[in-house]
Description:
By secondary structure, the chain is of the alpha+beta class. The chain has helices spanning about 15-40, 50-55, 70-80, 115-125, 155-185, 185-210, 215-245, 255-265, 265-285, 290-335, and strands spanning about 50, 55-65, 85-90, 95-100, 145-155, 215. The longest helix has about 45 residues, at about 290-335.
Amino acid sequence: MFEFFTNIHVDWMGLRKPLIAVSIVILLAGLISAVGRQFTEGGTDAFNLGVDFQGGTVVTAKFRQKPNTDDIRAALQNAGISDAIIQDSTDKQDEVLIKVPNLGARPDVCPNADEAGRCFVKAALDTFGKEAEGAAQLPDDESAAYKIVGTDAVGPVAGAQLRNQAVIATLLGLVGILLFIAFRYDWTYAAGAVIAVFHDVLITLAFFSVFQWEISLTVLAALLTLVGFSVNDSIVIFDRIRENLTLHRDKSLYQLTNDSINQTMSRTIVTNGLVFLSVLALVLFGGEVLRGFSLALFVGSITGTYSTIAIASPIAIWWQDKLGAAKVREVQIASQSGEKMASASRRSVTRRPVTR
């Protein structure tokens, strides 16, 4: 395999404490942000949940001459909707899907509370021209600029169900990873990998809480992607550690872990570097629709890379070291108490040739 970096000699295990300290600071910042926002009177929620989880209204509008997304978003902001999601229809070039959160009862704008989202969107779209009235279609009314062809409401109950299903899907994925790595390698490695995955997800959620980025179904897809991304890196290093354990029995576990991380560093830089560049392109040029998805992958790709070095490997090695020390203590206690081990009670037997 082609390698950019060879003969790397970095004491990664020695750097684990500063890296873990950085993670603790970020996690505490996210916890303070979430708790502070949740319990501050008149403040925002801990997380900026989107329409998929919080409930809201999805309005489908058909235009005679469709304006660009930025103009529609500016019109919605002027109407009082700052966190709307605008998507172009995949099969109809003249239609746009507009998702707005629950706006509550607004008698001054719309007498019917269930249609408040539609009324706000209509007030914003009226800046581009009037809507085709009644049952008239857009081609039939030459003076009309647009027509609202569909309105779907997502209630808070449905949003809560989606939120619960998202949590269950993530936890089931982590349990599956734990069982697989425990079966394929060792349960100490499985614990390190799963704790590292939890770390990556919590760090990403901390950024979403601090900066109030919107959490939608696409963000959930990004978090599940990060689970596989982080575990993939951990498995590569764990496999190299297992290989080195059989090849270099005279070295300590600490040194073998450092060697394994350094030996796979070229692969890590090439693979994760390309992922980082791809995600950076999504952040810069993906637009507002992919904003949450790209930001989650951007933060997760960075944390997933260093958590394999600073979280997964040290925890696995620390656990193995503790288990080894416990076994040594058991042997010492047994010898001091006068109890004989099963192997110690056996006498050596010298085989003699038999002459026939």
